[in-house]
Amino acid sequence: MVAVALILAFAAFIVVSFARGQIDWTTTGEYFAWPTVMRGLVNTIWISVASMVLGIVLGVACAVARGSPNPVLRAVAIFYAWFFRGTPVILQLLIWFNLALVFPHIGIPGLWQERTVYIITPAFAALVGLGLNEGAYISEIVRAGMLSVDRGQFEAAKSIGMSYFLSLRRIIMPQAMRVVIPPLGNEFIGLLKTSSLASIIGFSDLLRNAQDIYYNNAKVIELLMVAGFWYLAVVSVASIGQMGLERRFGRGYASTARR
Amino acid sequence: MTQPIVSALKVGKSFGPHPALIEVTLDVMPGEVVCIIGPSGSGKTTFLRCVNQLERIDAGALWVDGELTGYRHVGGALHSLSEAEIARQRRVTGMVFQRFNLFPHMTALQNVMEGPVYVLKRPPAEARAEASRLLGRVGLAHKMEAYPAELSGGQQQRVAIARSLAMHPKLMLFDEPTSALDPELVGEVLQVMRDLASSGMTMLVVTHELGFARDVGHRVVFMDQGRIVEIGAPAEIMNAPKEPRTRNFLRTILRGEA
Tens of pLDDT along A90-117? Predict the structure, then answer.
């Protein structure tokens, strides 16, 4: 009881302080649905979704390569995860964005060539940087999911004549999903927020656009509050989506209680 | 002369330094029910897994349905078959596992349809009709929409038998199909196997059910320490085993049952 009272009192104190503090809540309200903010929100969402898709594709490929009998594939997969997990995302983003310093031109020799700065826009650098980094983490998650599936499932799939890839697609992955979805949802939620690092390379995400506004009007905290609210809102929606997915892939495990 | 469905010639297999199979030679003729008995670690399950190529043999040769398994003769040398070719060879045999290994994310009906639809590429409607007929045959017409977790062990094993039959195998392999079951559920699975045997299916059964081996088996193989010790008609092996090891084993089993 005492603990609850203390917590409530502390929460009330925080709320009151912010309500009375030097925050111009009217400005926050005014910029709440400002076009620049909305554009940033849309950019944050699509870059997160696109990076996640890229990450899942790379992560699954990498996890499958890790389980492959081919030692070269295994080594490549291990190296990939080691490299991208071993360096900060922000460093990776900066390297991608500044790739033009290393390769002023890119293209297919003799066929087509373009100046690197035209190709590697902030959006492109953000997508590749976040996606590659995400793939390294997702590969570990997917691998853990595959390991969680009973060996007997592989054997049963083989015994009805399935090839390795067909059994992965039809039997192993759908079961691994059950284990993979919760941490994958976590990754996506993390990514929604990590994508704000792309603001550093000039990608117009939610945070960057909020900053652009306060560079002009000096309403720093007010606009950070706007951005904070939208991050919370998007993450909340993503959490609900995650619950739905978990239910979908829990088929056959929840038994009768679910139906 | 009919050719055997399974023909094993001096098959050897070892796991590291430990030999699991030593010079196992056995022919199984079409329509025959052969039961393999023996103590645990005698190599009987390993032999079954070699027939289905879940394990690769190290020595000797193994033909299933007239085809050399796992290898191909090219100009006097043996070459390993590709994964796809091994998958094709496996389709001749159906396998029923001790622990059922049903696909837990699919209903009974989907479990049975999976192979026909995705491996044999049969139209789903047709596969569904046959799957429900097969589930009816194993007495589970009322459980088609149930997930494995909603079924008893005996029911799961019957679904697993239907799943194998859906691939139209020429040979059914049973790896201790009743060992993981509660005693009161053993009977229903053995009944399905009896029906299958009387329908003329060729069966290779690893089992501890001596009653089943005696009633249904055409021949009984006794294995110990990776070798076939004795092969004979069930009555011969059960009532008048020639080898002392067979006698010892039967005595231990019967004492356990009493």
Answer: 999 999 888 878 787 777 777 777 777 7
Q: Which residues contact B99 (CB under 8 A, 6 or more apart)?
A: A152, B180
Q: Rounded CA gap, B204 and B172, in Å?
A: 6
Find which of A149, A155, A159, A249 to mutate to test the B interface (most B CBs within 10 Å of its CB).
Answer: A159
Q: Do the bridges between strand B219-224 and strand B227-232 make them parallel or antiparallel, or are there none, so unpaired?
A: antiparallel
Q: Could you tell me if the ipTM is greater than 0.85?
A: yes
Q: With beta carbons less than 8 A apart as the criterion, state whether B110 and B153 touch.
A: no
> Which residues lie below 8 Å from residue B226, measured CB to CB, with a gap of 6+?
B19, B20, B21, B22, B24, B42, B43, B46
Give the Cα separation of A189 and A186 in Å (integer). 5
Closest CA to A142 of A188, A180, A92, A198: A180
pTM reported for the whole predicted model? 0.81
Domain ranges of chain A: 30-103+113-249
What is the domain class of A30-103+113-249 according to CATH? mainly alpha
Q: Which of B12, B2, B26 is nearest to B218 (CA)?
A: B26
Please judge whether B118 and A166 are an interchain contact, meaning their C-beta atoms are less than 8 angstroms apart: yes
Tell whether the model's pLDDT for residue A208 goes beyond 80.
Answer: yes
Residue B18, token pair as written in the block: 């430990």
* A171 contacts in chain B (CB < 8 Å): 103
Query: Per the CB < 8 Å rule, is B163 touching A255?
Result: no
A110 touches chain B (CB under 8 A): no
Residue B246 CB contacts under 8 Å (≥ 6 apart), including other chains: B222, B229, B230, B237
Q: Are A224 and A31 in contact (CB under 8 A)?
A: no
- Interchain contact A253–B (C-beta under 8 A): yes
Contact B61, B9 (CB under 8 A): yes
Q: When comparing pLDDT for B220 and B256, which is higher?
A: B220
Residue pair B174/B165 in contact by the 8 Å Cβ criterion: no
Other CB atoms within a 10 A radius of the CB of residue B124 amount to 12
Least Cα distance to A40 among A222, A211, A239 occurs for: A211
Check: CB of residue A65 under 8 Å from CB of residue A78. Answer: no
Residues in A touching B105 (Cβ below 8 Å): 174-175, 178, 249, 251-253
Chain-chain contact of A162 with B119 (C-beta, under 8 angstroms):
yes
Q: Which residue has the tokens 């479990």?
A: B111
- Residues of chain B contacting A149 with CB distance shorter than 8 Å: none
Nearest to A161 among B87, B104, B147 (CB): B87
Could you tell me which chain A residue has the CA closest to the CA of B119?
A162
